[in-house]
C-alpha cells in the first residue's frame, strides 16, 4: 500500500526559498494554484508524480520531502513525553506538523527543553550539596504538586502516630478467627454495605481498583497480586474508617495546593493500609525476633517484599522504635519512584544517585537479594539490601513493570540485622558518593558526569581511568 506523504510545510519552504508565488510554482508543476494551496496546508498529499516533478524541476532531495520534519519530530516526541508536558499533544500528527511547519521554532523548543533538563539536574545536585552543608535552597512556588508531596514526605520521619493508633484500634475489632483479608471484606460489608469483586483484565484493563458508589461495590483487578489486592482492600477501609485521622495528619504536612493534598491523602491512606496489614506492636516484635529478615516478615504477615520493607521504615514510635531504616525505589531508567526513612531519607549523607549502588545491579539479577557495605566520602557507612520488584501482571506481549528497591541502615546496626551475614569477610565495601556531580572520588570507573565542585583536568599528556578527569 502506497504511503501518503503530507509535506506541505516543506513544499512551502522550497517555494519561499526560491522566491516563487503559488501561481508560478503551480504552473511549473502543471497543477492549479488552488491544488498547490491545499498541498501546502496538508489537506492533500503529495503524489509520486508530484514528488518526481518537484525533484526534477527544483533539484529537491526526495528524502528531505518524505522525512519527518527534518529529523525534528523524534526530538519533539522526547520533549512532549516529559511528565510535565505529557497529554498536551494527543498524538504524533500534531508533532509532525509543528516540525514541518516551523522547524526553527521546533529546534528552539528542543534546545530549551534540553537546557531545562540540564539545569534541573544541576539544581538537584546543588540542593544535595547545600543540604550536606546544613543549608537549604529556597523552594519555588511553581513546583509540581507531586514534587511538593514527595519532598514533604522524604524530609520527615515516616511515622504518623494518629494513623498507627487508629489502625491498631480498628484491627482489635476484627474477629479473631478471620484472616485479615476476610476481616476487611466483612468490615466493608457490615459497616458500609460494600461488596468486593475481582474483575478480569479485559473488563477493567487500565485500573487497579474502582469503587462504584451507586452499586456499593469495590472492584479489584485480577492483574494485581494477592498481596496488592489485600492492600487495596486495606486502603479502602482506611479511607472510610480513618478519614478524620488522615485529615489531621494531612494538615500537618502544610501542603500549598489542593492537588498536592489529594496526592498526599492517597499516600497517607497507603501508609494506613500498611499499618492495618502489619499492626505496629506485632510487626516490631516479629521484626526484632527475625533480625529484620524481610522474607520471614512477608511470610508471617502475608504481605509482599515491598510492603514489608516499606513497613520497616516506619518503626520509629518514640517509646518503641526499631532500627531506623531508609528506603528508595527506582525503575530501570534511574527514575526515583519513592524515598522514605524512619528519620527522613538521608539525602545529605547517602544521596542515593550513585551508579555503584546495588539497586542498579539488581536489575541484572531479578529476584536475587544483594547485600552491600556502602562507604561514603565523609566516612559514613551503610548496610544496604537491594532487590527487584514485579509490578501488576502483564498481558502477553506487554513488558513487565519492574522496579528495584534499596533498604538500608547505618552500618552500626549491622550486628542486629540478618543480612549482615552476607557481607564479605574480607571487609570489601562499595565506595560510593551521593551523586556524580558532587562526588570527588578520583579514578571512579562508574562516573557518569564531572563534579561541579572541581575544575576539569584537561591535560593532553595524561588520561585517567575515569570518563572525566578533574583537578
TrEMBL record:
Swiss-Prot/TrEMBL keywords: DNA-binding, Transcription, Transcription regulation
Pfam families reported for this sequence: HTH_3, Peptidase_M78, ScfRs
InterPro entries: Cro/C1-type_HTH, HTH_RamB, IrrE_HExxH, Lambda_DNA-bd_dom_sf, ScfR_C, TransReg_Diox_bact_type
Record flagged with keyword Transferase: no
PROSITE patterns assigned to the protein according to its UniProt record, in alphabetical order: HTH_CROC1
Matching CDD domains: HTH_XRE
Keyword Cytoplasm: no
Molecular-function annotations in GO: DNA binding; DNA-binding transcription factor activity
GO cellular component terms given for this protein: cytosol
Domain HTH cro/C1-type, residue spans: 11-65
Domain of life: Bacteria
Family label: Belongs to the short-chain fatty acyl-CoA assimilation regulator (ScfR) family.
Database matches in PANTHER family: HTH-TYPE TRANSCRIPTIONAL REGULATOR (PTHR46797), HTH-TYPE TRANSCRIPTIONAL REGULATOR SUTR (PTHR46797:SF23)
Protein name: HTH cro/C1-type domain-containing protein
Organism: Aliirhizobium cellulosilyticum
Lineage: Bacteria, Pseudomonadati, Pseudomonadota, Alphaproteobacteria, Hyphomicrobiales
